[in-house]
Amino acid sequence: MVRAEEEFRVIFKLKDQVGGGFRAMNPLKVAESLRCVGEGLDARILPNGAMLLLCRNMDQIGRAMKVGKILGKKVEVIIPEKKNELKGVIYGVCADISEVEIKENIRGGKATDVKRFKAKEGGTKNTPVLITFDGNLLPARVFIGCLSFQVRPYQRPPLRCFKCQRFGHMAASCRGNRRCAKCGEDHDILKCEQLASKCCNCGGSHLASNKECGHFLKARQVQEVRDQHKISYAEALKKVERSKASGPVVRMPVSSPAVSRQQPTQVLSRQEIVINKEAPLAFMVDVIYGAREKKSRSDVIKFVSEAAVRFLGVKDYSPQSLHEYMRVSQEQTVQESSSQSERGDEEGEDTDDGGLIEDIDDV
Question: Which of 55, 91, 190, 250 is least enclosed by beta carbons within 10 angstroms?
């Protein structure tokens, strides 16, 4: 796979495309027809049937531009433009402000596109706003009027196929069998007559779209790696699987010193969390910069709990559990401090008496 600065992209698109495009062609014959471009090429089929070719240098780009036909079919050669764009999300913007008004009045970053998320039924109308910024650096804050809004990096949701229900591709490019999102059988979910749900990915009693499903959580982690390193879904999946195979295991048993301050066992239960090396660093940065915006202790605890879910995969710790644990821990600390203080006073009195007696004896 061609990497970093030596990667140059070329897209071949069939002028008279029928069916799956390059996907329907023999890959060995396609590779033979591209030998004129050079060695060390890497190609992949895009969801729309076009072919993305990764060249190693500008010389190969020039030869690729001269390719007019592949396997006797005319092709259009496209050099995709590199866009220096980053997406961020801001929260709490009044619903009365339109997307156009936000784009025209925002300060602190050059916004090229603004889109407000759709409101859920019965939910708040002040939905988050997705902003596309021009440049390579996401601003920490932006201003709309005199109000300041924190900008958080936008994390694309995992891509789930509505045909086979697996993650990483769309139904348009799916070659798998159709599976119902509710029961996993070969029919549309609108025609499903099953009363109980069964995930066709993990076998759990929930829909395939459930955000607590292990497959969804893994796909979300893969998406994070993909966005961070600007790589394909398949490459990101390999990175995640390698990190889980070799990454550290953080064990938090109830009996460990970190959580053994006589708290009830239902507050913190034993669990093992497999994390990569970047996750705890991202968790700390998110907490440091995000928690300082919170005004109350409850909001801070809630924010830390949500960050632990996002970055560390912790699912069993609710804000209420952490609040209770902190309360019990503080009470235990106060009791230990009081006990130590009382023992210290008693020992101090004994020492002082002994010293006084010795002084008197010496006299």
Answer: 190
92 lies in the same domain as 198: no
Same domain, 239 and 252: no
| Better-scored residue on pLDDT, 351 or 345 | 345
Query: How confident is the model over 44-62, as pLDDT tens digits?
Result: 888 888 899 888 888 888 8
Here the CATH number for the domain that contains residue 119 is 3.30.70.330
pTM over 0.70: no
Whether residue 165 is contained in a domain is answered as no
Residues shown for the chain: 363
- Residue 245: exposure state from Cβ atoms within 10 A (0-12, 13-18, ≥19): exposed
pLDDT digits (tens, 9 = 90+) for 207-252: 998 988 989 999 988 888 887 777 777 888 888 888 776 654 444 4
Confirm whether 228 is domain-assigned.
yes
C-alpha separations of 231 from 35, 191, 224 in Å: 25, 37, 11
Total of domains in the chain:
4
What percent of the chain is modeled with pLDDT above 70? 74
4 φψ region: left (φ > 0), alpha (ψ -120 to 50), beta (else): left
Residue 132: inside a domain: yes
Burial call 66-95: b when 16+ CB within 10 Å, e when fewer: ebeebeebebeeeeeeeeeebbbbbeebee
Identify the pLDDT of residue 129: 93
